[in-house]
Design a protein that fits this description.
The protein has 304 residues and is of the alpha+beta class. It folds into two domains: 225 residues; 65 residues, no CATH class. The protein has ten helices and four strands, in the order ααααααααβββαβα. The chain has a four-stranded antiparallel β-sheet, with no helix packed on it. Helix 7 packs antiparallel against helix 8. The longest helix has 35 residues. The radius of gyration is 25 Å and the shape is elongated.
Length: 304
């Protein structure tokens, strides 16, 4: 990140963390070159994707998905620790306050530099991930709804990075110690990601396809994300898929008293991807705004 057009606390912040900021484009370049090489090898027959689950491209992309999920935690921990808590712990932030800089400007500089770097890096890395993911799209563990691809090809990772920045700015001031601030921020950011990941598929109602008890099972459209399958009764009720098997040891041989009429499958179509992303992104940004408000509230209470 160039410091030529930056002034005051923003210039100081960039200078303090210039090595980390330069490491971000370097990491993106290495990631792109690696994936480009693996895709080229795959096209030349060295990797038998999508049929080979152990191919080099598939293995690297599995790791990349995990790395993308960890990115918001890393961003938040860095803001909480090295950027905020370390200066409060060591007292070096007082130097900035003697250079005609207010506490609000000091914290705002930390947040804006971190947010710009985090969102920019997340957007670039998401594009690189999509480049490596596209040959594997729709294969085992690489569909649009799977953990990793879902987050990495959409807008939620940059949003979670902003949440990490905001939580880091808040926790860094509350903890005022580097390692505890990093640990708590990573824990809080990760917990939010975990909770929303369990809720995201309830944002939109599922669609249902039904069919008779015998014959081919009801099939959602190609590319759909299957949520649930089971049995339907004549009264409109639902039973678990294995209910008949528990009684007769046959999947489609059902006792008369169960009144089974057919089968059903609940699913999310591929068209639900971007609406779900938009809802989750909006929720994350709202939480980030709340954490950011808390960070400046704490700052004001301690420097009023």
């Amino acid at each position: 990140m160039s410091t030529l057009m930056l002034k005051g606390p923003h210039w100081v912040t960039v200078r303090q963390h210039r090595r980390t900021l330069w490491a971000l484009p370097a990491a993106a370049a290495v990631a792109f070159v690696t994936l480009a090489a693996l895709r080229r090898l795959a096209q030349n027959g060295a990797d038998l994707y999508p049929g080979s689950p152990d191919g080099p491209l598939r293995s690297v992309m599995s790791f990349a998905g995990v790395a993308m999920l960890l990115l918001p935690l890393i961003v938040g921990a860095f803001v909480a620790g090295p950027m905020v808590a370390r200066e409060l712990e060591s007292g070096t932030y007082r130097v900035a306050l003697t250079q005609s800089s207010t506490p609000r400007a000091w914290l705002a500089a930390k947040i804006t530099v971190a947010a710009a770097a985090a969102v920019g890096s997340a957007a670039v890395l998401s594009g690189i991930y999509r480049f490596g993911w596209s040959p594997l799209d729709g294969t085992h563990q690489f569909s649009w709804a799977d953990r990793g691809p879902y987050e990495s090809i959409g807008t939620v990772v940059p949003a979670y990075c902003l949440l990490g920045v905001a939580v880091g700015a808040l926790v860094g001031q509350l903890a005022r110690r580097t390692l505890p601030a990093m640990a708590v921020t990573g824990l809080v950011t990760g917990l939010v990601m975990l909770v929303l990941s369990t809720l995201r598929w309830s944002f939109l109602p599922v669609r249902t396809v039904t069919g008779p008890l015998t014959g081919a099972p009801p099939m959602p459209p190609t590319g759909a994300f299957m949520k649930d399958v089971g049995l339907t009764t004549a009264s409109g009720g639902r039973l678990p898929e294995g209910t008949c098997f528990e009684h007769t040891r046959r999947l489609t041989d059902c006792p008369a008293d169960l009144d089974v009429a057919g089968r059903y499958a609940d699913y999310h179509p591929a068209a639900h991807y971007w609406p779900t992303q938009s809802i989750e992104t909006a929720l994350v940004l709202a939480l980030a705004a709340l954490a950011l408000w808390g960070a400046f509230r704490v700052l004001r209470s301690r420097h009023s």
